[in-house]
Automatic annotation (TrEMBL):
Residues 1-17 have a biased composition (Low complexity). It is a multi-pass membrane protein. The keyword DNA-binding does not apply. It comes from Occultella aeris. One of its GO terms (biological process) is transmembrane transport. Belongs to the binding-protein-dependent transport system permease family. The chain crosses the membrane at residues 33-60, 97-119, 131-152, 182-205, 226-245, 288-311. The gene is lacF_30. Its main location: membrane. InterPro entries: ABC_transporter_permease (IPR051393), MetI-like (IPR000515), MetI-like_sf (IPR035906). PANTHER family: ABC TRANSPORTER PERMEASE PROTEIN (PTHR30193), INNER MEMBRANE ABC TRANSPORTER PERMEASE PROTEIN YCJO (PTHR30193:SF37). This is Lactose transport system permease protein LacF. One of its GO terms (cellular component) is plasma membrane.
Length: 324
């Protein structure tokens, strides 16, 4: 008796089973060259007006260069040493830090209260109010700064309203007073960007299952206890992310503060960005090398915050977003 055995079937390669391999970069460039052709103007503009100035500022920071000559004189770390002993630089640094410390908690806290109100089923016209509070976000900061210089003038409606309410004794130009100019800028900045932080909080609140709120109500918790013991603990990961995003935003207020106060009076509202601008372009003798050194230090501070933000986002992603 003859026993016939069939040969084993040939193994199917993983490449064949999974499909063809992804084409290489050169092949994709040849195949989709027309797509990159449309991107070319944007890439050229981004490289010329963003990447090149960013890289060049690091080189200019080591030069004594007023900007008029073709080249500057290499001075090494002299600009950085001078910055460390410059009272105006440290004044701008303190003003930026004060702006951050006051504005970020105010923006995050007020936006959370607003989001809680708009997230409630009892609130009427939710869509209207969300749009109303978001409108300042899409308005140009420079325009808002110019408009508020009129509103915060001694004869403006805000100053007159403060006198009528008994908060101030006489009409005061809030952006022209050394004691109030920075805080006026903080208030306007918080008002302008409150809507975007409100959207962040609304998105966070909607990740909490409705069953959690209903269970808290069945246990006899009132609105205050439900917020402190149920809602807020679930919002902690989002609190970290939103706070870090707003912190980075609080360091980029040049357009608003320049049009609102110009850093004055007497440098009372001069943040680091205005210090850099004034040193490079508005001074009697421009110092582009010195301003570039200040910009490098400011950029390093922003990079540190960006790293902290990345770490915070990674930590927040590992936290539970709700209760099943």
């Amino acid at each position: 008796m003859t026993i016939t055995t069939s040969a084993p079937a040939p193994a199917v390669s993983s490449t064949t089973a999974k499909g063809s391999t992804r084409p290489g970069l050169v092949r994709r460039l040849r195949r989709d060259w027309w797509i990159y052709l449309f991107l070319l103007p944007t890439l050229l503009g981004y490289g010329a007006y963003t990447v090149y100035p960013l890289v060049a500022s690091w080189w200019y920071a080591f030069l004594d260069w007023p900007g008029f000559a073709m080249t500057g004189t290499f001075t090494g770390l002299d600009n950085f040493r001078q910055l460390l002993s410059d009272d105006l630089f440290w004044n701008a640094f303190r003003k930026s830090l004060l702006f951050l410390v006051v504005a970020v908690p105010a923006r995050v806290g007020l936006a959370l209260l607003l989001a809680l109100w708009l997230n409630s089923r009892k609130t009427p016209f939710q869509g209207f109010f969300r749009t109303l509070f978001f409108l300042p976000v899409v308005t140009t900061s420079a325009i808002i700064g110019i408009v508020f210089t009129l509103l915060l003038d001694a004869n403006g409606p805000i100053s007159l309203a403060l006198v009528w309410a008994g908060i101030t004794d006489s009409p005061t130009n809030l952006v022209a007073s050394a004691g109030t100019s920075l805080y006026a800028g903080i208030a306007v900045w918080v008002w302008k960007w409150l809507g975007i932080t409100m959207i962040y909080w609304l998105a966070a609140l909607q990740t909490i299952p409705q069953d959690v709120h209903e269970a808290a109500m069945l246990d006899g918790a009132n609105a205050r206890k439900e917020f402190w013991h149920v809602t807020l603990p679930l919002l902690v990961p989002f609190l970290v992310i939103i706070t870090l995003i707003d912190t980075v935003g609080a360091l980029n207020v040049f357009d608003l503060m320049q049009t609102l106060t110009g850093g004055g009076p007497s440098f009372s509202s001069e943040v680091i960005e205005i210090f850099i601008y004034r040193t490079a372009f508005a001074a009697t003798v421009p110092q582009l090398g010195y301003a570039s050194a200040a910009a490098v230090l400011f950029g390093l501070l922003t990079m540190v915050l960006a790293v902290v933000q990345a770490v915070g986002v990674r930590w927040a992603r590992r936290q539970p977003k709700g209760v099943a």
